TrEMBL record:
Heme binds at R69, R109, F158, R355, Y359, R366. It comes from Alteribacillus iranensis. This is Catalase. The lineage of its organism: Bacteria, Bacillati, Bacillota, Bacilli, Bacillales. GO terms for molecular function: catalase activity; heme binding; metal ion binding. There is a cross-link at H336-Y359 (3'-histidyl-3-tyrosine (His-Tyr)).
Length: 674
């Protein structure tokens, strides 16, 4: 928890209500004498209309749900703070980026895109990464995803994309999944999706944790400085723990074992003081360099390769406080890429242009009208004054006669502010041309960067992409859809497409491939940060465990790992020499897939039940390429499974040797060579 309360926390405190220990009242403040029985005409008679309290309570209940978001319905959010590393005045006049050490309250919402609010966290899907900066100049929303490109180039196609992605309309099946005919039919007939689909079939679509995924602004924006000079800019969030994923079999099992896996992971990390951290980076291109690249920098299906346009790290965000109420904060927060501050402006990116309309429009129906900015989570920390009035949910009590501009009754206030005094001014860009419904020829290359992405992948990542395509297309009922997609992605890599074709039973394409040989190491997860910090370790213990096991567990904690004791029963587990440990979980209450590594230690009283469950834990972890450790009595289980000499399997009774080797293996995330 932060040592001080920032402006947003102080503001939210005004709206908090603690009901614990209070007397019950109606919403009007009338004390309630009975909350068990409705008012009746006799003990067995009908409830009568006079019961105003019953009607108030039931009416509120009947209306306490709001429409879920069409996309990004399932989310998790947290409060935090952003600190600037250095002044960015050279590039932008945005005040929150104006000086080193300046801190700004933030609220971040992570989400899946396709599924409903009740869907599972581990769907193969894009993840939303939306950040609201509560700056002194107003709210600034950086609304992005964990993948830097998008499916389409023009916002007018967004309804078509979502209709194709959502469950098929006749059956409402499948939920939170793209593995069905309508999505892949859309892909096959809209080749601009090629690059994004390559990312979606990679591990990026099944992250290990919200704490271990990147965030991207996706669209191209502008930075504008005090002199009016502009730079094109793309935004990046770089997680301190690196970028890591699960494997698909693991993802499906986690969804069945713990639907809230990502939510719980982030919530518990914050509660335990392991605050998620992300560095903010920007890619900057001078206005005069707009056309020097072999792709259009305004095309949202393209990245700016970091090798060509380096990412400049400018600050760090730390998420340090969970919400107090999910509905009031996580569900009611309203983001909009048009919520900007002086120094941040837009470009002619056609996807961005459409987003500038859509986000406000959708909040009107979700949050009941135009006053959603007055909800506590959405209120800016600076004052706001204008002539907008009334409407559903109005909270401000405006005083004065004049509600229009210009006026004399209120001395022509509120008054517009000049640019030099902080008033927002759009970047002065010369625009001319015929009115046309068309797409620039510079947007027509749909495959070069899809090939670049494939070229950048490690061998393990390429295997995962082929498996993902094979699973997704294998779920399509229409053979023609499968064939069209395979033929389409032969343009990315012929051998990849041929292997997918064999897996899903369609004709192998005989032509395809690309002459593109470039790669971008930055997009491969093989080149990320590797740490053992906050990794969850399943410590499998039986009665009579070796006394040194407790030292091993404490040493794991010192290395930043989070060991959890699992046994055949909960509570105290008795070890040798009077040593005790507390088992928080049993083999019945948790699962191997919920951990990053397994450590088996056994015990003198280990029985067949312990051996059976330990074998299952170890085998499943091994099949998902996870590190496995064993000491003392746990070695027997690994020997019986013939795993003792496998890579990433650490067997040692000596504390220092074991902890060093095991920590290195856990930090590696997966043992892909296996």
């Amino acid at each position: 928890m932060a040592e001080h309360k920032n402006k947003k926390e102080e503001q939210l405190d005004q709206f908090k209500a603690k009901d614990e220990g209070q007397e019950m009242t109606t919403n009007q403040g009338l004390k309630v004498s009975n909350d068990e029985f409705s008012l009746k005409a006799g003990e067995r008679g009908p409830t009568i209309m006079e019961d105003f309290y019953f009607r108030e309570k039931m009416t509120h209940f009947d209306h306490e749900r709001i429409p879920e978001r069409v996309v990004h319905a399932r989310g998790f959010a947290a409060h935090g703070e952003f600190e600037t590393y250095e002044s960015m005045k050279e590039f932008t006049k945005a005040d929150f980026l104006s000086e080193a050490g300046k801190k700004t309250p933030v609220f971040v919402r992570f989400s899946t895109v396709v599924g409903s609010r009740g869907s599972g966290d581990l769907a193969r899907d894009v993840r939303g990464f939306a950040t609201k900066f509560y700056t002194d100049e107003g709210n600034y929303d950086l609304v992005g995803n964990n993948i830097p490109v998008f499916f389409i180039q023009d916002a007018i196609k967004f309804p078509d994309l979502v209709h194709a992605l959502k469950p098929e309309p006749r059956s409402e099946i499948p939920q939170a999944a793209s593995a069905h005919d309508t999505f892949w039919d859309f892909v096959a007939n809209n080749h601009e999706t090629a690059h994004m689909v390559m990312w979606q079939m990679s591990g990026r679509a099944i992250p290990r944790s919200y704490r271990m995924m990147e965030g991207f602004g996706v669209n191209t924006f502008r930075f504008v400085n005090e002199e009016g000079q502009a730079h094109f800019v793309k935004f990046h969030w770089k997680p301190a723990l690196g970028v890591h994923s699960v494997v698909w079999d693991e993802a499906q099992k986690i969804n069945g074992k713990n639907t809230d896996f990502h939510r719980q992971d982030a919530f518990e990390a914050i509660e335990n003081g392991n605050f998620p951290e992300y560095e903010l980076g920007v890619q900057l291109i001078k206005e005069e360099d707009e056309y020097k690249f072999d792709f259009d920098i305004l095309d949202p299906t393209k990245i700016w390769p970091e090798e060509e346009v380096p990412v400049k790290i400018i600050g760090k965000m730390t998420l340090q406080r969970n919400v107090d109420n999910f509905f009031a904060e996580t569900e009611q927060v309203a983001f909009h890429p048009g919520h900007v501050v002086p120094g941040v402006d837009f470009t002619n990116d056609p996807l961005l242009q459409g987003r500038l309309f859509s986000y406000t429009d959708t909040q009107l129906i979700r949050l009941g009208g135009p006053n959603f900015h007055e909800l506590p989570i959405n209120r800016p920390v600076c004052p706001f004054h204008n002539n907008q009035r009334d409407g559903y949910g109005r909270q401000t009590i405006n005083i004065g006669k004049a509600t229009y501009h210009k006026n004399s009754l209120s001395n022509n206030t509120p008054t517009p502010v000049s640019e030099k005094d902080g008033g927002y001014k759009h970047y002065s860009e010369k625009v001319e041309g015929q009115k046309v419904r068309a797409r620039s020829d510079s947007f027509q290359d749909h495959y070069s960067q899809a090939v670049l992405f494939w070229n950048s992948m490690s061998s393990a990542e390429k295997e995962h992409i082929i498996s993902a395509f094979s699973f997704e297309l294998g779920k399509c009922k229409e053979i023609s859809v499968r064939q069209q997609v395979v033929d389409m992605f032969a343009n990315v890599n012929l051998k990849m497409a041929q292997e997918i074709a064999r897996n899903i039973g369609v004709k192998e394409p005989m032509e395809g491939g690309s002459s593109v040989t470039s790669s971008s190491p930055a997009v491969s997860q093989a080149n990320t940060v590797f740490k053992a910090n906050t990794r969850k370790i399943a410590v499998l213990v039986a009665e009579g465990f070796h006394a040194k096991v407790k030292n091993m567990v404490e040493a794991m904690k010192e290395k930043g790992m989070e060991p959890e004791i699992i046994s055949t029963h909960q509570g105290t587990i008795e070890g040798q020499e009077g040593v005790q440990m507390e088992a928080a979980e049993t083999f019945m209450t948790t699962e191997s897939v919920l951990f990053d590594a397994v450590y088996a230690v056994g015990g003198e009283k280990a029985d067949n039940d312990y051996d059976k469950h330990t074998s299952y834990f170890v085998q499943e972890a091994f099949s998902h390429f996870k590190p496995i450790g064993a000491s003392f009595g746990g070695k027997r289980v690994l020997e019986n499974l013939s795993l003792s000499n496998e890579k990433g399997v650490i067997i040692d009774d000596e504390e220092d040797n074991f902890i060093k080797s095991f920590t290195d293996a856990v930090a590696a995330h997966r043992i892909w060579d296996r």
